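About this split. The held-out portion is used to measure sequence recovery: a designer receives only the structure tokens and must propose an amino acid at every position. Recovery is the fraction of positions where the proposal matches the reference. Here is one held-out target exactly as it appears in the evaluation file.
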């Protein structure tokens, strides 16, 4: 069974490019042209305050600026993202896309650590396409789908998953362009846990079936995913992203269930929602909150199945914010938000039972943030023949 899974993915990698070549017309071969579709830089920097309440051990030498009330105060300016984006079309059928995080140090895992997207796509027609390279794993949900530079505070799952992986995908879009279905065979995000430097050698894969539905104000991002955490053993994701969008407001609610057996359903999950009120073309107010838990696994187990949310832990967060885009320069965005996050973890009682409380090292976090995002679109300055 293990070999069958591997060979199925390998065959899809080898056969589809030949099929793509067979579909190419002589006219396309003779008239290969290139045009850019994306050519930009984007950066974000924030002034941030983090206040962590210390329930115990407030004299820990590794804490910073702890006052007598037990608050640990950290604050300052810091850069969040600096990305280079490049994409284009080569001829009628082939396109490519790159998003590279510009970081002044080598990747801790491999050469592609700081590369989010680097893929080439062959489009047979308006309905069928294949991609090969690195891109986000096809997991449903709108928080997950958003570009990291646009996510201010988030679920614990969002912060833990290694979502950008090497692989291959095939997609189908219906004639009305209301439905898109994608099947993806790629590395599993669990390759990054339990050792560094030999991730690809672990032979852990993910099998992802994704649906994007667009029906007027309603949009769906649903997926069923099998993520290998060890060879032959899988974590199943069922992710349901639902969004309603209107002129002045929009709302999304994502639910993700994670399990390795039917007995564990509804005990390991994440739920998150965001409400946006578009006050004007320049001003947007938003509220966001979420909850993660993993009560599916035995806290005493030697082997952890879902390392995204550790056994016995649960998290919740909530916050309010505002975004402002000047009418004279829409590529600039100023944001501000206030959010609170609390972690609960298990505590072993004298009678060997487990209760849940806030951990003594303090994971009650108040976050206050003001930041600027600048997206520099070089497409505006390219000659028309390159667009």
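Reference sequence for scoring:
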């Amino acid at each position: 069974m293990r070999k069958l899974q591997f060979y199925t993915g390998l065959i899809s990698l080898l056969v589809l490019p030949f099929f793509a070549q067979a579909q190419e017309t002589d006219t396309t071969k003779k008239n290969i042209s290139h045009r850019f579709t994306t050519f930009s830089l984007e950066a974000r920097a924030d002034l941030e305050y983090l206040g962590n309440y210390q329930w115990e051990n407030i004299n820990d030498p590794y804490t910073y600026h702890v006052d007598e009330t037990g608050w640990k105060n950290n604050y300052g300016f810091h850069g969040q993202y600096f990305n280079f984006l490049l994409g284009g079309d080569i001829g009628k059928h082939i396109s490519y896309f790159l998003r590279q995080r510009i970081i002044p140090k080598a990747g801790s895992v491999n050469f592609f650590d700081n590369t989010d997207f680097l893929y080439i796509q062959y489009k047979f027609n308006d309905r069928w396409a294949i991609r090969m390279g690195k891109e986000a794993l096809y997991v449903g949900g709108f928080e997950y789908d958003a570009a990291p530079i646009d996510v201010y505070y988030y679920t614990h799952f969002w912060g833990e998953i290694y979502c950008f992986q090497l692989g291959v995908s095939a997609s189908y879009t219906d004639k009305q362009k209301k439905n898109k279905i994608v099947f993806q065979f790629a590395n599993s995000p669990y390759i990054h846990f339990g050792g560094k430097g030999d991730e690809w050698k672990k032979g852990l894969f993910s099998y992802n079936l994704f649906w994007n539905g667009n029906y007027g104000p309603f949009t769906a991002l649903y997926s069923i995913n099998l993520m290998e955490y060890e060879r032959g053993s899988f974590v199943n994701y069922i992710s349901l992203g639902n969004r309603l969008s209107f002129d002045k407001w929009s709302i999304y609610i994502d639910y993700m269930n994670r399990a390795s057996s039917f007995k564990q359903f509804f005990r390991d999950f994440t739920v998150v929602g965001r409400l946006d009120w578009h006050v004007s073309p320049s001003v947007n107010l938003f509220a966001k909150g979420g909850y993660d838990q993993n009560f599916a696994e035995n806290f005493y187990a030697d082997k952890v199945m879902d390392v995204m949310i550790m056994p016995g832990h649960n998290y919740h967060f909530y916050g309010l914010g505002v975004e402002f885009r000047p009418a004279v320069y829409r590529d600039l965005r100023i944001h501000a938000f206030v959010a609170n996050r609390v972690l609960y973890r298990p505590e072993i009682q004298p009678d060997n039972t487990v209760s849940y409380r806030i951990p003594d090292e303090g994971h009650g976090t108040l976050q206050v943030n003001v930041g600027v995002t600048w997206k520099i679109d070089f497409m505006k300055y390219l000659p028309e023949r390159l667009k």
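Annotator remark: DSSP finds four helices and 17 strands in the chain.
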